[in-house]
Specification:
- It contains two helices and seven strands; from the N terminus they run ααβββββββ.
- It is of the alpha+beta class and 121 residues long.
- The protein has one domain.
- The protein has a seven-stranded antiparallel sheet with strand order 1-2-3-4-5-6-7.
- The chain is globular and about 50 Å long.
């Protein structure tokens, strides 16, 4: 799991130079959707991996951050990270749910953030 944590830290936060390298290699695809546009970055860090960043252009807010990668071998030690963002009433974006799935180890970690309120209320 230490290797998985180290891997995740290479994707979060995204690196501007890596994004430019992906674009330069022709591995960046933009998928417009209903309210959310997704940037798919193939081979972001490793051959065959995908970093998908979903954002709401109207709200200027991130909506999702998904990583599909692996530690050493794609079929043997796949790792998936899925982060879903929500917004507070003032528009501040936060990670509402984080799901880390390590299929080879049969481990799934789910973190849900909720109940935010203004301090002093």
């Amino acid at each position: 799991m230490e290797d998985v944590a180290a891997l995740v830290h290479q994707y979060v936060p995204p690196d501007a130079q890596k994004i430019q390298a992906v674009q330069g290699a022709g591995n960046l695809a933009v998928q417009p959707g209903a309210g959310v546009t997704v940037l798919n970055l193939k081979d972001y860090l490793k051959p065959g991996d995908v970093l998908a960043i979903g954002f709401d252009p109207a709200a200027k807010a991130m909506r999702s951050y998904n990583v599909t990668s692996y530690v050493e071998k794609p079929q043997d030690d796949a790792v998936a990270l899925a982060v879903t963002f929500a917004s507070l009433p003032d528009g501040t974006s936060y990670p509402q749910q984080i799901l880390l799935d390590v299929k080879a180890k049969n481990i799934q970690v789910k973190v849900t953030n909720s109940g935010y309120k203004k301090a002093g209320t």
